[in-house]
């Protein structure tokens, strides 16, 4: 993240970064959901 902020973050792939953030958030939610389900089932 610090590499992108070294120069103008808006000129770098803004759409790509937002897409990566979205995928990362979805992955985190998926992991949390899996852990919660495992807690309930197990």
From TrEMBL:
The chain crosses the membrane at residues 20-41. Keywords: Membrane, Transmembrane, Transmembrane helix. The keyword Membrane applies. This is Uncharacterized protein. It comes from Eoetvoesiella caeni.
